[in-house]
Amino acid sequence: MHIVCLDLEGVLIPEIWIAVSKAAGLDGLARTTREEADYDKLMKGRLDILAANNLRLADLQAIVKGMEPLEGALDFVRTLRGRVQFVLLSDTFDQFARGILEKLNWPTLFCNTLEVAPDGVITGYKIRQQDGKRCAVRAFKSINARVFAAGDSFNDLSMLREADAACLFRAPQAIVEQCPDLAATDSFDGLLEKIDVFLQESP
Amino acid sequence: MHIVCLDLEGVLIPEIWIAVSKAAGLDGLARTTREEADYDKLMKGRLDILAANNLRLADLQAIVKGMEPLEGALDFVRTLRGRVQFVLLSDTFDQFARGILEKLNWPTLFCNTLEVAPDGVITGYKIRQQDGKRCAVRAFKSINARVFAAGDSFNDLSMLREADAACLFRAPQAIVEQCPDLAATDSFDGLLEKIDVFLQESP
Fold it and tell me: What is the DSSP string of A88-146?
């Protein structure tokens, strides 16, 4: 059995926090795991900004619902599903992502959870586990799946290196240069090609 | 994070081998894991019958492509996807199931693989691992997911008992009676209710 593990933001949809930053006019929310490798530091900063501006879960959900998948992403998902099982591994939050998953025809997503007070204020967040993407790949390998992984950020590197085959997808030049051990592509066609090679090489 | 694990045949689609049996007019293919708990014995018998009747993979795929999901299954899948992540755990074969997965809008499926000769003759089969459904539930628990499972057959029992919560779905009376420890329901509404309770009880 083969499983393809994909990062979500920057691969199939735009970065959610950048979209929120633009829609809410709050520049401080625009930092992502591309710029800040310390995820906890990143998230605490985001929650502080939300609280200071009285933004609640429903406000963020409305913004995410208005987002669209990246150009070509829906076709890519359709093609991929005809060839191999795939799962999205993301550091985003379930309550966020739901609004845009529908537009991708409900791919399976393993991610994290926001802690929300009854009045809708986001009070914190629950990480499923540390290094969760890598652990998910390891869990798939433990059930004898062969795993291919693709992602664009710092937080994808351990997942990519744990997988049987992998490639960076639209990663910033700095990450591509820091990771000469990883293949890289910027197009969905290029990604499909690499996945096809993986499917043929390890039946 | 929550994951719902569902058996495929008898839950969302009819039993594939029964459909093949009817379409090919071969009664011997109609036995399933409901009647025969020894899966290897069951599969070897099926492959012998296929070989004796010169049925190849393409013949079986054409039959499966003509199948339809069970009544209400597509609505159930749609509703479920809006509430929780779910994965199909099945002892069927990837090359079979693909034809009907599309009609369910491509849910994620972990299953087994047929071994097929270049001329399309099915020469054998590859089980991903022994007790694969249970191992998949265990793998999901290892990444800190809370797991709900539902299925109808002997080969689902270890998966159901490994899960944090579970229920039999449209199981034969004999299995329901042999398993007083497991809840049981025969309707998609009943199953959704049990899943909702699970989501509320273990946030």
Answer: EEEEEEHHHHHHHHGGGT--EEEEEEEEE-TTS-EEEEE-SSTTHHHHHHHHHHHTT-E
